[in-house]
Amino acid sequence: LNIINQVLDMVSLGNSGDSDTRSVLQPSTEIDPILRSVEAIRREKGVTIECRLPPHLFVMCNATHFRQIVTNVVDNALKFTGQGSSVSILADSGPDGQVVISVRDEGPGMSQREIERAVKPFVQIGDHLTRRHGGVGLGLAIVSRLCEMNAGSISFESAPGRGTTVHLTLPSGSDDALSECLADVGGEDQCLARAS
């Protein structure tokens, strides 16, 4: 069923106009339903997820796209991370008024060639990973397309045997939303959410 859904998602992206309905989102509050959606695989593998998402950071993104982007990347990280390992979800200010959300895993890592293949639709990263983890090679291709539709991008830091960090770069939210958030949280600098 998950494979069918991914294929349908990829087909629908060609005709989607949902990026026109972008809104200001706060990653620190959007993360909870995403964590709930991956709780089964997290618990099955005994993986710890640590989130450091400062509440003063906002992104401008279609809400459905944002959840799908982050869910796909976190799900991928959990799939490739070993039993009892950890996954980190971090957010920070990026260049040119952007926000960078980084998802880091302790999996097998990828070579440069595998990174280039990772965002191509229906292309498996490598035979050794395909046999172990399955899939049809659509998850990161969908993420890449959704980031582009929201004026964002995806990039990778990885090497064989050293895990992978996926960087999701999205436009920052409005100054009005920032001011409202800082007033609500009383000027707190950091939001820490932990699933263990």
What does this structure look like?
The protein is built from 8 helices and 8 strands. By secondary structure, the protein is an alpha+beta fold. The strands form 2 sheets. It has a 6-stranded mixed beta sheet with strand order 6-7-5-4-2-8, with helices on one face. A two-stranded antiparallel sheet has the order 1-3. It is globular and about 40 Å long. The two termini are 27 Å apart.
Please write out the topology.
Elements: H1 2-13, E1 23-25, H2 27-37, H3 39-45, E2 48-52, E3 59-61, H4 63-80, E4 86-93, E5 98-104, H5 112-118, H6 127-133, H7 139-149, E6 153-158, E7 164-171, H8 175-185, E8 192-195
Parallel strand pairs: 2-4
Antiparallel strand pairs: 1-3, 2-8, 4-5, 5-7, 6-7
Helix pairs in contact: 1-7, 4-7
In summary, what is this structure?
With 196 residues, the protein is an alpha+beta fold.
The string of secondary-structure elements, in order, is: HEHHEEHEEHHHEEHE
Overall number of strands: 8
Helix proportion range: 40-55%
Distance between the termini: 27 Å
Record the strand order, biggest sheet: 6-7-5-4-2-8
**Annotation field: number of helices:** 8
Query: What's the average pLDDT?
Result: 79
Structural class: alpha+beta
What would you call the shape?
globular
Strand content: 15-25%
Q: Sheet bearing the most strands, described?
A: 6 strands, mixed
Q: Uncertain regions: pLDDT < 50 for 5+ in a row?
A: 1-11, 130-137, 185-196
Integer-rounded radius of gyration: 16 Å
